[in-house]
Amino acid sequence: MVQAIIDIDDKTNRVLNIVKAQFDLKDKSQAIQVIANRYEQEILEPTLRSEYLEKLSKVEKQKGIKFKNVGELRKIIEDR
């Protein structure tokens, strides 16, 4: 485990205290870990996961629906 001394502002300290209370954590180190894990899952992972890239590739290859206005699109959707 790595130990670090960090300087944080009051707002960040309040956020850490809220996270600590919400998840019933023992200390702010655990709160930082929760925040880092959430960041990894929600921000970093979508760009790293191969399944995401495969899904994106399939979506990009799909043929779109051409329409001139909203009324025409509505008619196309309702006729399906």
Question: Which descriptors would you attach to this protein?
Answer:
80 residues; mainly alpha; elongated; 4 helices
Low-pLDDT runs: none
| Number of separate domains | 1
Average pLDDT number: 89
Cα gyration radius (Å)? 23 Å
Q: Give the end-to-end Cα distance, rounded to a whole number of Å.
A: 58 Å
What's the story with the biggest beta sheet?
Answer: none
Strand content: under 5%
Which structural class fits the helix and strand makeup? mainly alpha
Q: Total number of helical segments?
A: 4
Helix content: over 70%
Chain oligomer state: single chain
Write the element-wise H/E pattern from the N-terminal end onward. Answer: HHHH
What does the model show?
This protein is mainly alpha-helical and about 80 residues long. The chain has one domain. Helix content is about 70%, strand content about 0%. It has four helices and no strands. It has helices spanning about 10-20, 30-50, 50-60, 70-80. α1 (about 10-20) crosses α2. The longest helix is centred in the middle third of the chain and has 21 residues, at about 30-50. It is elongated.
